[in-house]
Amino acid sequence: MADATALDSTVDIKNIVVRYLEAVATGPAADIAALYAPDATVEDPVGSEPHRGREAIAQFYSALEAAEIDTTLLHLRVAERNATFHFRVVTKTGDQTITIEPIDVMTFDPDGLITSMRAFWSPEDMLTGQ
Q: Could you tell me which residue ranges the SnoaL-like domain spans (predicted)?
């Protein structure tokens, strides 16, 4: 690639995924949405109505802002401008803790912005505790 700022390696995508997980843990939603292309889609969980565009994506992630969140990357695979990764999210709200380990699939544009994200999980995968 001629553009030195363009996405050009597996390391670049790995770094973006790490930044994404850090942003999910620390917010705000605008920081997460900034990682997405302007016309990106988020389908979380798979089978739900996709959120389209940065504004809708920021609105989706805004639900996380009131919670204490910890994320841990468990597995990551990168091929071309695609990544699939398994991670743990522990969300604390009040006296309740919810733990889930989704598998996300992301695609990226040449500039390293996420063009789509699909999260594979279902309510049965959520563990709740206090």
A: 17-116
